[in-house]
Amino acid sequence: MKQGEQILAQQRDAQRVQQMRDEMDRQIREQEKLLEEIAQREEQERLILEEEVKQAINTKMANIRQILSNIEDGRRKIVDWMVENDLTKNKKNLNALIFRVFPSKGKSVQMHLKSMSEECSQLDPLMKEIQTFIKNRSISASKRPPISSMKSPSSEERL
């Protein structure tokens, strides 16, 4: 009779062990599912950040293009005025030349030159801002470990 009780006790123990294994496997599957969901969310966030970076860079590039366009417009106006009066051959000081040849446009020409200078001075901060923005994004992305490195071991690996 004792042998029968021992067999029953062993069977109950084996059932409990199997139930615990099954429960652990279920919990592991749930954790892996949660980790996968987190990985998907992180990937979506990464894609959103990439899009934000692209938009920010495109905005900065549009600003740079506008500045360059303004500079080019000012340059064209000055060259056009110089060509009108055949000043391309004259090698004198530009300001003196401008006021001597264009008494009525002298202030306007100087204003365009000053505007071009100001436009040029805006390029450096924009370029630095873009470089800093890109550098900060790449640093923050490289510091965060990918979610795939955080997966839990399977039940076979634990045993």
From TrEMBL:
Coiled coil keyword on record: yes
Coiled coil: 14-59
Record flagged with keyword Coiled coil: yes
Entry keyword set: Coiled coil
Region (Disordered): 137-159
Domain of life from the UniProt record: Eukaryota
UniProt protein name: Uncharacterized protein
Source species taxonomy: Eukaryota, Metazoa, Ecdysozoa, Nematoda, Chromadorea
